[in-house]
Specification:
Blueprint lengths: L1 H6 L5 H8 L3 H12 L3 H19 L6 H10 L6 H11 L38 E9 L6 E8 L5 E7 L4 H14 L8 E4 L8 H10 L2 E4 L9 H15 L7 H19 L10 H13 L16
Parallel strand pairs: 1-4, 4-5
Antiparallel strand pairs: 1-2, 2-3
Organism: Streptomyces malaysiensis subsp. samsunensis
GO biological process, one term: DNA integration
GO molecular function: nucleic acid binding
Length: about 300
Amino acid sequence: MTALIDEHPRLGVEPVLRELHIPPSTYYRWRRAGTEPCGRRRQDAELTDRIRQVHQDSGGIYGSPRVHAVLRREGVHVGRKRVERLMRQAGLAGISPRRGKGFTRRDPDADLAPDLVQRDFTAPAPNRLWVTDLTMISTREGPLWLSAIRDAFSRRVVAWETFAHADADLVLSSLEYALASREVAPGELVHHADHGTQYTSIKLTTRLVRAGIQASMGSVGDSFDNALAENLWILVKTECIRGRTFATRAQANLALFEYIDGFYNPRRIQKRLGYLSPIEFEEKHYADQAAPKPVNLKPRQPALTS
């Protein structure tokens, strides 16, 4: 209606409204709605700007559940359905993970450690269960092999190393870095890997024994037996590597540093962690451990005397 009157200004507003039996108050309310958006629309516009910023800060990774969680953490009271609608209208979406290719090579003559995990990737505290694995990242310079160790309690990547070759020295280097950066009590930690030759090597198994760490191994060809480590590769390949071409290993290494140390460990919130990042989850655990326990001040009942 407003467009029709704007196209034919010579007809005049009042005559047109009379002919169409539209009250002038209704027409002018329509006009104001077009030039002065209602409060709900203004809120949607402001909220969409904030949603776009959260989505951008995540590198375009977060979908509506995590965007909603970030907004709630910031004190923005908004429903998840509304966040979904605004993201859909703004053309924003998270990244869907894809399962990668396995690279396990088994030594048939190696002595294998027992499976102490049995697919139960939970731990009561940090440094009780570490899972580890290898994956390959392609560059124009050649393959870059990534070894990482992940804590099952907080899902934090406690150590990672890269090298041009997937050998025992690479996995040993990542283990040494993890031991140097974490406080590990002898006899309390389980180190879980697959049957790859790097993990059955004399170098690694000897170092585990010296550190008082129990070795554990899942089966070959079954990603569920090392699912927590496989899940990390899915995240890295989806959120850091997908769609990127690296000219050199150094470029790929920098991208991994920015993702793991700059985003994943300190900032990437996870539903299983109560929408906290791995570092936040560990900090909360240690803060809870250090908090004084409540004292029972209830007075004792006097003993009954005969």
